[in-house]
Design a protein that fits this description.
eight-stranded antiparallel sheet, single chain, six-stranded mixed sheet, alpha+beta
Length: 677
């Protein structure tokens, strides 16, 4: 009864981590005094450093974003609410990412809490991602066998101490859109420490305590796995919440997964199927609470959230939603209810790119580094491919590489930066591609094999049907929601039209902001939609994506191949609408002309679509004046054939270099394909 589980959710850069750090400061987890009003500069600097304590990754601290969810337990004095004689409540807090690319982390965090604090920036108001996280927070999912759980959402405004704040207008807009009472919206500021205690008081009053399992005997251990990550020295560290019983160091545990399935009685009841491997048992080596620093306690009791280290070597052995049970109680637990995590949706990657080392002999180091990152990033999907049929092979320009699936463009950038920060590897990431559905049609000129499937999903453009085949293409669609000032409504609608958006709807949020929603090809969004949207709205707009209905749509698309000196560079290929193929090919060729280094031989850049060259650029070679023998002395006069002989000899050497020379590709060359406007 004296436990509260809650998290912070908000649009990116609305102050989640800053406010969470202030909560830790108020409850004493940071060891800082909060009653002093006259603080020294040293103390102020110390607090500024610790305000991002929950963002532990270097990429999080540099970019000011949260990539990985973090949790912390704290004690809060609430004598009027607590039922124990000490008057303290145990609060388990989770800080979540705000960007859409890390929505899986948000869903996972929400599945383990009963309350969510929805933060809104008092200077920006409602943003596109605010709608998305609110919908996730208010979604009701299966919690345990035979029971549902409702999640309480507490609204709050951040940054109310800034001069540009518009708290009243934001409160009214939030009230109209979400149905909150404007008087119930808490005003907060992490910088000025305003409203921090009010937030915690509301969490204690409004968020319900975790429900007991229906067959809880307070003895049998059932611990829900919330998250897990890999550490080189300790192996897999599990973040767990004890639902019943207790867990101590030295206990032998087994990890079980509960899956809900509906019986054939109209869906009125559910049963739990248990999936486990009885041979995989582990001994608890280290256990304790997270504050957010790990504090070893030796045990965890019912209701507590903490960490467990049990000698696991792969995070796939301890995935979110699984349950830790005592090995000696396994037969008993199989007849009991197990917690079932809410559906996290389709975890399949939505973007695919090839990752190659800068140096030809660095593939093994890159492969090991990507494997290490994948242990801590469940959104990564790593494929090892080889052979000329895959763009991950790299061909003569890049060498061998890995095929990696991502959740979005920011996920790609964070992945590349983490490779550099944590492993010192500067890798080349090719332009991300979206998967297309290819349906082959009957053709007399190019018949397909009898056992070949009629429909294929193409994630690697090197497997795109060659020119001459008859086929239809279905491209993935997404629903894009854009929040922008009404003064830029014309620019936004023009951009949506240019990106082949359909079913455009508009809705006024308040007097100054409109909500635009449209179904748009995913391939158009992942190129440069974000940059163009920011440019057309002076940086004020934000957007969010969700699954479209239907998820795919037939389109008239063409694949554009980029060739360097006649050799096709598969990683530079892209797909666009047939009507835009020539225009976009010219843009890419022109950008490559600017970023590719000049060589000792001529570099010919060509773009090929539908079997013909649609764009071309030429980089001149470095050329020595062979008619000058030394200093300013030129080849003697007389017959012109002597000069022609020297020039012809140089020409043959340049031609020979052009056939055997290698054009070096940089990350800037691949970035030119991402932005084609």
């Amino acid at each position: 009864q004296d436990i509260r589980n809650f998290c912070f959710v908000a649009h990116v850069d609305h102050g989640k981590s800053s406010l969470a750090s202030r909560v830790l400061e108020l409850t004493g987890n940071l060891g800082l005094a909060t009653t002093e009003t006259n603080e020294t500069n040293a103390t102020t600097d110390n607090k500024k450093e610790q305000i991002q304590l929950l963002d532990t990754l270097s990429v999080e601290q540099e970019r000011g974003i949260t990539v990985k969810s973090t949790a912390a337990s704290m004690l809060y004095y609430a004598p009027t609410i607590a039922t124990n004689p000490t008057g303290y409540l145990l609060l388990n807090m989770v800080d979540t990412p705000g960007h859409a690319d890390f929505g899986l982390e948000v869903t996972r965090s929400l599945s383990s809490v009963q309350g969510a604090v929805l933060l809104l920036d008092a200077t920006q108001g409602i943003q596109a991602q605010t709608l998305s996280v609110y919908e996730k927070a208010t979604a009701t999912g299966k919690h345990t066998k035979g029971g549902n759980k409702e999640r309480v959402v507490i609204p709050a405004l951040t940054k109310v101490d800034l001069e540009s704040e518009k708290s009243l207008d934001v409160c009214l807009a939030v009230s109209e859109l979400f149905g909150f009472d404007p008087d119930d919206i808490t005003l907060t500021s992490a910088r000025s420490r305003i409203g921090i205690d009010t937030i915690l008081d509301k969490v204690c009053q409004q968020v319900p305590s975790p429900k007991e399992l229906p067959d809880d005997d307070n003895k049998t251990l059932r611990a829900q796995l919330i998250d897990s990550w890999f550490e080189p020295l300790r192996g897999v560290v599990c973040l767990v919440q004890i639902l019943s019983g207790s867990l101590s160091e030295g206990d032998r545990i087994t990890i079980v997964q509960g899956k809900a399935s509906t019986e054939d009685d109209g869906g009125s009841s559910t049963k739990t199927n248990h999936v486990y491997n009885a041979k995989e048992t582990y001994s608890v080596q280290d256990i304790g609470i997270v504050t957010p620093k790990r504090i070893r306690t030796g045990f965890l009791n019912r209701g507590q959230m903490g960490y467990v280290i049990a000698g696991l070597r792969d995070t796939k052995q301890a995935q979110s939603g699984m349950t830790i049970v005592q090995q000696k109680e396994l037969s008993k637990v199989l007849n009991m209810a197990l917690p079932i995590m809410e559906e996290e949706g389709d975890e399949k990657s939505v973007l695919y790119a090839s990752v190659h080392p800068m140096e030809g002999d660095g593939f093994d180091d890159l492969s090991n580094a990507v494997d290490r990152l994948a242990l801590n990033d469940s959104g990564l999907e790593v494929h090892r491919t080889s052979g000329a049929a895959s763009s991950a092979d790299g061909g003569p320009f890049l060498g061998p590489g890995l095929r990696v699936g991502f959740q979005g463009l920011l996920h790609v950038e964070v992945f590349r930066q983490r490779l550099l920060d944590e492993f010192g590897l500067d890798a080349i990431v090719t332009p991300p591609k979206v998967p297309y559905i290819i349906t082959y049609l009957a053709s007399k000129s190019k018949p397909r094999a009898a056992d070949a499937p009629d429909t294929e999903v193409v994630e690697d453009l090197s497997k795109w049907p060659s020119y001459g085949h008859r086929f239809k293409v279905q491209e993935p669609m997404v629903n894009v929601r854009i929040m922008a000032p009404v003064t830029y409504a014309g620019n936004v609608m023009e951009l949506i039209k240019r990106k082949r958006g359909k079913d455009l709807n508009t809705k006024p949020i308040d007097e100054t902001t409109w909500l635009f929603s449209s179904n748009m090809p995913w391939g158009e969004v992942v190129t440069d939609f974000h940059d163009e949207l920011k440019n057309t709205t002076a940086g004020y707009a934000s957007f969010d994506i969700s699954d479209a209905d239907p998820p795919h749509q037939e389109a008239n698309l063409s694949k554009v191949d980029i060739m360097l000196n006649g050799d096709i560079v598969d990683p530079l290929a892209f797909v666009c609408h047939k009507d835009d193929a020539q225009a976009q090919a010219r843009v890419v060729c022109k950008k490559l002309h600017e970023v590719l280094p000049r060589q000792q031989f001529v570099t010919v850049i060509q773009a090929k679509a539908d079997g013909k060259i649609v764009a071309s650029e030429r980089i001149k070679a470095y050329r020595k004046n062979v008619l000058v023998t030394g200093g300013s002395k030129s080849v003697g006069g007389g017959d012109i054939t002597r000069k022609k002989k020297l020039l012809e000899k140089q020409k043959k050497g340049k031609k020979r270099q052009q056939t055997s020379g290698k054009v070096s590709l940089s990350q800037a060359a691949f970035n030119s394909v991402i932005s084609r406007s």
